[in-house]
Amino acid sequence: DTGVSQDPRHKITKRGQNVTFRCDPISEHNRLYWYRQTLGQGPEFLTYFQNEAQLEKSRLLSDRFSAERPKGSFSTLEIQRTEQGDSAMYLCASSFTGATREEQYFGPGTRLTVT
Amino acid sequence: KNQVEQSPQSLIILEGKNCTLQCNYTVSPFSNLRWYKQDTGRGPVSLTIMTFSENTKSNGRYTATLDADTKQSSLHITASQLSDSASYICVVSRDTGGFKTIFGAGTRLFVKA
Question: Counting one residue from A and one from B, how many pairs have CB atoms under 8 Å apart?
Answer without folding.
Answer: 52
